[in-house]
Amino acid sequence: xxxxxxxxxxxxxxxxxxxxxxxxxxxxxxxxxxxxxxxxxxxxxxxxxxxxxxxxxxxxxxxxxxxxxxxxxxxxxxxxxxxxxxxxxxxxxxxxxxxxxxxxxxxxxxxxxxxxxxxxxxxxxxxxxxxxxxxxxxxxxxxxxxxxxxxxxxxxxxxxxxxxxxxxxxxxxxxxxxxxxxxxxxxxxxxxxxxxxxxxxxxxxxxxxxxxxxxxxxxxxxxxxxxxxxxxxxxxxxxxxxxxxxxxxxxxxxxxxxxxxxxxxxxxxxxxxxxxxxxxxxxxxxxxxxxxxxxxxxxxxxxxxxxxxxxxxxxxxxxxxxxxxxxxxxxxxxxxxxxxxxxxxxxxxxxxxxxxxxxxxxxxxxxxxxxxxxxxxxxxxxxxxxxxxxxxxxxxxxxxxxxxxxxxxxxxxxxxxxxxxxxxxxxxxxxxxxxxxxxxxxxxxxxxxxxxxxxxxxxxxxxxxxxxxxxxxxxxxxxxxxxxxxxxxxxxxxxxxxxxxxxxxxxxxxxxxxxxxx
Length: 518
Known about the structure:
By secondary structure, the protein is of the alpha+beta class. The protein is built from 16 helices and 10 strands. Strands 1, 2, 3, 4, 5, 6, 7, 8, 9 and 10 form a 10-stranded antiparallel beta sheet that branches. Helix 6 (219-236) runs antiparallel to helix 11 (343-357) and helix 13 crosses helix 14. The model has no long low-confidence stretch (mean pLDDT 92).
């Protein structure tokens, strides 16, 4: 069957005008449906939109439903009746739609993006036997921001040409008639128009680095461009972090903080060290004060996996640990909110932005400030790469854990530099190298994180004992510690092969070719 087509009506047209222009040669029956209210939902980082989906909580008449619409086709794939929009998928009854949403969202919460109020009037076109052969649906819409503030004005009025199975000819004829009237098919859907109407853009936030750098731009100016974008990411995640909407707000804030610290230290010789030093200290403070809450977030996210890794009869003994995590997370979150509300944090954000937005000096005494950024990127990336390669080759099967940790830190520096500057290089090549580096980093991260988790669980157990936890819970946690240390040894055994792959001859040559190494 032919897909429906939406047409945009001129500003001075409504359904009566359209009906008058078409009615001479057509017999219509009009029906008016109740006002429809739609709330479009997505995660803060647009995970559903990226999956080609629109999730709509629709209220019509006395009923309401949650509907998954495939964006590219505009067709509804799944829906369930529900009284209120959910936050997390777990709030929905067990069904295919819940699984579909959970698969895309992972740990993220659903947030209202935009609200649309629609009045629909339908014209049914009848043939000589008074059978309905197609429908014209007139849509008049108003839009609202999620906080219910009405946006002045209306969305463009639309008319949807909706086919009926078995009646292709009337559809084609009406399509021709509408186009003779000068109507043009709408190029974007209601969702896009509504989001634009409240001053936003679909996909307007991502934690991924996507800079478009000029290879011949001054290095100090480019460094400020990168740091300003990272500051935007920090600031846009502050409210969600304070409200504890989901764990990813704090995660993105911390990643942007780490990247900022790395950029300050690894894009060398572009800024006055005396001017930069206070900001380095303040960003170290920000990393420190956001750490405890994030650590507890991670243990809460991992809790189900911890429980499933235990023998079935022992799993209930782990519940006091979950209660312990929730209690201490609440306290850590309260402390974090106090820090993020502090004059010190507000002053840091204000002064850092002012410093970054200030123009770079025409003349700079810093050694790398005015050289083209592509030259500095080549130098810095290849230098860190050589260090990673040298230190990785020195690691043996019995090397101390600290050696793996130092290599991981250098790999992170290398990854950040490559991601900062990836637009300066051919995308297939640099993304391939970043992908290889991520495989190695995942192994090193597992090795380090598993050790940290094992040590933390032992410390948690001691604290829980002081707080009156039963011995059975400590025994269950002891089993977990053993599992974690066993997995760490597995990561140690896997490292040699993974590093050998990273250090393969063709990979070494690719780094040399891309970054002009000798």
